[in-house]
């Protein structure tokens, strides 16, 4: 059985990405997912995870296996103390999303 924990809440930004806050035991920060305009291949990340002006991770587009398939993003944050692997799930309207820790 896998447990899912919501560690962040996000809203759409005016620039086409996402902005919100991560809350874990070691991280409590506002971050942004900024569209990656320099994608050189389909495997390149769709978003860059930013803390201020610092690049701290990436996010890749995925489709769920449910019917109908839903779009979400697999997020990797390179924290030297606690690297995070999570998934960002937008709501039905696509205006807010939850960041769920992958356990």
UniProtKB/TrEMBL annotation:
> What Pfam families does this protein's entry cite?
DUF736 (PF05284)
Q: Which InterPro entries does its entry note? A: DUF736
Q: What is this protein called?
A: DUF736 family protein
Species of origin:
Aurantiacibacter xanthus
């Amino acid at each position: 059985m896998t447990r899912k924990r919501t560690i962040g809440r996000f809203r759409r930004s005016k620039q086409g990405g996402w902005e919100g806050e991560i809350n874990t035991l070691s991280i409590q920060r506002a971050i942004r997912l900024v569209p990656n305009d320099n994608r050189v291949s389909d495997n390149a990340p769709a978003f860059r995870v930013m803390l201020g002006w610092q690049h701290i991770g990436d996010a890749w587009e995925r489709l769920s296996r449910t019917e109908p398939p839903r779009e979400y993003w697999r997020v990797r944050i390179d924290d030297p103390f606690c690297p995070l692997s999570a998934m960002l799930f937008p709501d039905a309207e696509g205006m807010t999303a939850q960041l769920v820790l992958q356990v």
